[in-house]
Amino acid sequence: MDFQPIIDFDKQLLLLLNGSGSLFLDSLVVTLTNAWTWVPLYISLLIVVIKNSESALRVLLILASAGLCVLLAGTIDDTIVKPLVGRWRPTRDPEIGLLVDIVDGYRGGKYGFFSAHASNTFSIAIFFCWLMRCRLLSVALVLWSLANCWTRLYLGVHFPGDILVGLCWGAFVGTGVYFLYRYFAVKFTRTVSYTSLAYTKTGFNRNDADIPVCVLVFTLVFAVLRACLA
Q1: Residue 105 half-sphere exposure, CB side, CA atoms within 13 Å?
Q2: pLDDT range class, residue 190, cuts 50, 70, 90
Q3: DSSP label of 52
Q4: Is 144 helix (H, G, I), strand (E, B) or coil?
Q5: What letter does residue 157 receive in the DSSP assignment?
Q6: Beta carbons of 164 and 171 less than 8 angstroms apart
């Protein structure tokens, strides 16, 4: 099968999505793509987990599962897949590299297939979607992951194909890790059934699950304000 037409389309699509010439968007994207920007979100998820866990063992299982998501989704990608596949990032691609809009001199590493940003964030999003079973939080986390993916296209450090494969791998990892977590949670921790409308089917207080959503909104507001002042 000839993949060249697909590769060519991938490159042309990237050039359509890359950059904007807007200093506001440049600053916004730089903030949103920075992993440190989302530390409050991770802390808020940890707080919800601690508040809604019957034992320290369940908290440790969830933390270990989240760590496993990052290991399988991102670390394996960066250390094995990218060097093995060896696909240039758009910013370093010999064919279109000079056409890519560079923001603040940022070009990323040498190789870009597949996107660790996409796989990492989507694996965490999918894992917590399964774990908490709260519709509002699930939508918010998926949009958060997609926003991170958009920043990578805007910066020209990943092709759309890199993002798509990263999302697929992240969904697979997040789902697989959740069912692995559930196996050990049922085996080693006390399970409680909830029927109240105040709780999700997996036992998370709906009001507590709104905390990460609020943190996401405040983080976005912070990023927008920072971009306005830049």
Answers
A1: 0
A2: low
A3: T
A4: helix
A5: S
A6: no
| Structure token digits, residue 70 | 């990052």
**Cα distance between residue 136 and residue 127, in whole Å:** 15
What phi and psi values does residue 106 have, to the nearest 5 degrees?
Answer: -85, 120
Segments in 72-159 forming alpha helices (H): 76, 82-85, 116-132, 135-154
What is the maximum alpha-carbon separation in the chain? 59
Q: List pLDDT tens digits, range 67-103.
A: 999 999 999 999 999 999 999 999 999 999 999 999 9
- Residue 120 pairs with which residues in a beta bridge? none
Three-state DSSP class for residue 199: strand
**What b/e sequence results for 158-167 when a residue is b if at least 16 CB atoms lie within 10 Å of its CB, and e otherwise?**
bbbbbbbbbb
Amino acid (1-letter code) at residue 50 = I
Please report, as a single letter, which amino acid is at residue 45. Answer: L
Radius of gyration of the CA atoms of the chain, in A: 19
Contact 181, 107 (CB under 8 A): no
CA distance 180 to 191: 15
The Cα-based distances of 74 to 15, 28, 198 in angstroms read 25, 24, 35
47, amino acid identity: I
